[in-house]
């Protein structure tokens, strides 16, 4: 096996490990991931209601506000959604990294990455359906997909500056 082929195969290892990490996280029950007790401990330092008391919106039919959820669950909501975005940002970044090594056509790389990220996000939500205390949401698939797209954009920005620096 040539070095070039070995290097291409090695590109898959971070992606596979990251996909397994996502699977592991979605295998945990809500109770195992609950961080509200930690947030409660530290939330008394800041008057969150004064800062974010005005924030009220609906997410998948549920009102998100300090008034409705309490400080700890309100903050945890944003942490959990940021985690969705960041985890799939990395998935998108790692996936486009592989696609660009196998084809020079950016559109094909982008579409292939997007299909993979969206499918993985859908499967992740289906997996959560069978995990205790977890609710699969199409809104999370959308959020995951946006995270993946931003990961692709970040990859292209990094690649652009790397190429520019080499010249």
Helical coverage, percent range: over 70%
| Residue windows where pLDDT falls under 50 for at least 5 positions | none
Radius of gyration: 19 Å
Derived from helix and strand composition plus strand pairing, the structural class reads: mainly alpha
- How many individual β-strands? 2
> In total, how many domains does the architecture comprise?
1
Q: Order of SSEs, N→C?
A: HHHHHEEHHHH
**Anisotropy-based shape:** elongated
Tally of helical segments: 9
The averaged pLDDT comes out at 93
| Range of strand content | under 5%
Strand order of the largest sheet: 1-2
Q: Give the N-terminus to C-terminus distance in angstroms.
A: 32 Å
- Tell me about the largest β-sheet: 2 strands, antiparallel
Describe this structure as you would to a colleague.
78% of the residues lie in helices and 4% in strands. It has one domain. The protein is elongated, with a radius of gyration of 19 Å. The protein has a two-stranded antiparallel ribbon. By secondary structure, it is mainly α. The longest helix is centred in the middle third of the chain and has 32 residues, at 71-102.
Quick overview of this protein structure:
With 167 residues, the protein is mostly helical. The protein has nine helices and two strands.
């Amino acid at each position: 096996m040539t070095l070039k082929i070995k290097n291409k195969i090695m590109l898959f290892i971070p992606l596979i490990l990251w996909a397994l990490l996502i699977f592991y996280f979605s295998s945990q029950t809500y109770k195992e991931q609950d961080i509200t007790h930690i947030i409660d401990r530290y939330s008394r330092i800041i008057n969150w209601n004064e800062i974010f008391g005005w924030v009220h919106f609906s997410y998948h039919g549920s009102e998100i506000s300090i008034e409705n959820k309490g400080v700890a669950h309100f903050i945890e909501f944003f942490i959990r959604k940021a985690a969705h975005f960041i985890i799939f940002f990395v998935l998108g970044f790692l996936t486009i990294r592989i696609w660009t090594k196998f084809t020079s056509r950016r559109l094909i790389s982008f579409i292939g990455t997007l299909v993979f990220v969206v499918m993985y996000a859908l499967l992740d939500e289906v997996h959560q359906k069978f995990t205790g205390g977890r609710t699969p949401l199409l809104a999370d698939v959308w959020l995951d997909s946006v995270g993946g797209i931003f990961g692709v954009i970040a990859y292209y920005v990094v690649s652009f500056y790397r190429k520019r620096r080499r010249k």
